[in-house]
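Saturday, quiet lab. Running sequence design on the structure tokens for the scaffold JK sent over.
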């Protein structure tokens, strides 16, 4: 019996997803719960398992296309007749992806997937209360778009991320065209031959234009929004890591034997940051208009670098965990992030973030605040350097710690005290790792 594969809903506020990669081809056999395709949403990237065993008979949504949740994206063991999603059985309309235009080369998702998604000045307008997700409304705010001018292609006229991006791109292209036309000379020589316009993804001389991946677009949107929202200020401390290095070297073999994974430096920084937040709770707050919201739970986000970008899974209630619990949470989240096994809940609710450019050799970085938080800690590489101790030159393991903070909430003195607490904890480390 044929089984429909649908776009899952990865969280309450997630209304759509982008298929970034098919892990099986049409005609291939798949087992139940075997990874079938990868998706990207505005919350998380994930691998989606096959709902049944059989032959993948049809792929209805191509890679880099965005569709609404509950849309049928493929059929397993189907003969082409069973295309109704569970929603259709309940009498609801199924969002079937539109066929791509013939002979069009690959292009950015916003224009190639739904060529009619963006409305110009003559496009029909949506109702006054346009249906859209929080992400769509944020994009509209950033690009000063009136959502009533955007034509939604989702169920019931819902405006999807694809629709708003297509509208923005069409508007920008039109503006660029008007500017170019204004700069043209009044008299031009006639061209000898008419050459086709190169597509966005073909080589044009020494350059190549490649559309951003869905994850890259999300990172871009969030980083630009953060810089517009927070008054970023930075401070940097140099910290001696000798006792931390000694503790790790002394305990790592026994730690790995007992816990089943390697002891890294990240849990030391998480533990120190959590203890410092207990002393300076404003670091664990957010801004709501003219109000400050202090968070009771310390939920620490750990930035994890992926091949396609960056994701920040969250250690929930890190203030209630001992060192081993923090280390286990760091290991679990990092591993699931790299294997695309994170849930939406794993990347939500963070109150403070730590990023580690030092893992790639960076001495320090000045990271952008992860909204709606008010601070982020950057951890530089740990390396041996000559320092002065008791009027003599000594070799010590040293690291730079940087704090990016929102000056609307945190003053320089508060930021310095916070980093001072972390420095004091790390330089006088006495907590066992086991």
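Result came back. Writing it out in full:
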């Amino acid at each position: 019996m044929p089984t429909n594969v649908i776009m899952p809903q990865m969280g309450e506020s997630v209304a759509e997803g982008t298929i970034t990669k098919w892990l099986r081809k049409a005609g291939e056999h798949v087992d139940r719960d075997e990874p079938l395709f990868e998706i990207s949403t505005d919350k998380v990237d994930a691998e989606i398992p096959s709902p049944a065993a059989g032959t993948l008979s049809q792929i209805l949504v191509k890679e880099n296309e965005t569709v609404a949740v509950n849309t049928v994206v493929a059929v397993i063991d189907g003969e082409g007749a069973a295309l109704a999603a569970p929603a259709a059985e309940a009498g609801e309309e199924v969002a079937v992806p539109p066929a791509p235009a013939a002979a069009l080369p690959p292009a950015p998702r916003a224009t190639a997937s739904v060529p009619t998604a963006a409305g110009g000045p003559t496009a029909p307008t949506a109702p006054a209360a346009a249906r859209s997700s929080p992400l769509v409304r944020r994009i509209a705010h950033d690009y000063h778009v009136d959502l009533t001018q955007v034509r939604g292609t989702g169920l019931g006229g819902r405006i999807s991320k694809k629709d708003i991006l297509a509208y923005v791109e069409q508007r920008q292209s039109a503006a660029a065209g008007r500017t170019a036309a204004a700069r043209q000379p009044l008299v031009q020589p006639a061209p000898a031959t008419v050459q086709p316009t190169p597509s966005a993804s073909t080589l044009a001389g020494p350059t190549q234009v490649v559309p951003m991946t869905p994850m890259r677009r999300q990172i871009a949107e969030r980083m630009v929004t953060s810089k517009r929202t927070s008054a970023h200020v930075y401070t940097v401390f140099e910290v001696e890591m000798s006792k931390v290095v000694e503790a790790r070297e002394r305990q790592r073999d026994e730690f790995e034997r007992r816990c089943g994974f390697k002891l890294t430096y990240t849990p030391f920084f998480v533990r120190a940051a959590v203890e410092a937040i207990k002393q300076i709770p404003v670091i664990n707050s957010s801004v709501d208009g003219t109000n400050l919201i202090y968070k009771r739970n310390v939920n620490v986000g750990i930035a994890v670098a992926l091949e396609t970008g960056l994701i920040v899974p969250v250690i929930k209630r890190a203030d209630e965990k001992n060192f081993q619990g923090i280390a286990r949470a760091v290991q679990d989240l990092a591993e699931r992030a790299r294997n695309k096994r994170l849930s939406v809940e794993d990347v939500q609710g963070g109150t403070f973030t730590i990023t580690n450019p030092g893992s790639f050799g960076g001495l320090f970085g000045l990271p952008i605040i992860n909204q709606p938080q008010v601070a982020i800690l950057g951890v530089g590489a740990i390396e041996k350097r000559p320092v002065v101790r008791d009027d003599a030159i000594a070799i010590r393991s040293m690291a730079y710690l940087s704090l990016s903070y929102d000056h609307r909430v945190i003053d320089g003195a508060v930021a310095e005290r916070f980093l001072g607490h972390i420095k004091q904890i790390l330089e006088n480390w006495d907590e066992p790792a086991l």
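Notes for JK: Confidence is low (pLDDT under 50) at residues 79-128, 183-201. The chain is about 30% helix and 25% strand. Ask whether to fix the surface positions before the next round.
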